[in-house]
């Protein structure tokens, strides 16, 4: 199952990009044997959107056909890392070829886009900068693959 992190806004080179690349490389390496990956980040230029609805249109155009769509949204479900791993494995086992994880711009995702998503997840009760969310979801993907592979990275 290919993973697409579709994010509004462009991340410049720097420490955040280094972390994302590292975690996604680890995810690809660990997930390959599990039928997970590769993972990629699709960056959308927020200046072309102009509004939440405009950004949503950009996101919709970037979605792979038939993908399981997960909106990362502060009002979404707060779940544990093992529960996220279980969801990831379940989507894969149910035949999903693509998973799209959506990250909005500075003002978040359009409510209509969230309503159309297959799932809404929150990374906690705090609000995180959208640029850091990329790092956090990349790490959680690697953690989920490690959990599914029974590798020692995740500790209870």
Strands, helices and their partners?
Blueprint (H helix, E strand, L loop, with lengths): L1 E7 L6 H17 L7 E6 L7 H11 L5 E11 L2 H13 L4 E6 L7 H6 L2 E4 L7 H19 L8
Parallel strand pairs: 1-2, 1-4, 3-4, 3-5
Describe this structure in words.
By secondary structure, this protein is α/β, with parallel strands linked by helices. It has a single domain, classed as 3-Layer(aba) Sandwich (Alpha/beta knot). It has 5 helices and 5 strands, in the order E-H-E-H-E-H-E-H-E-H. It has a 5-stranded parallel beta sheet. It is globular. The two termini are 26 Å apart.
Helix content: 40-55%
Report the count of strand segments: 5
Strand content: 15-25%
CATH topology: Alpha/beta knot
Number of helices: 5
Order of helices and strands: EHEHEHEHEH
CATH architecture: 3-Layer(aba) Sandwich
pLDDT under 50 segments (min length 5)? none
Describe the structure using short key phrases.
alpha/beta; Alpha/beta knot; globular; 156 residues; 5 helices; five-stranded parallel beta sheet
Short description:
The protein contains five helices and five strands.
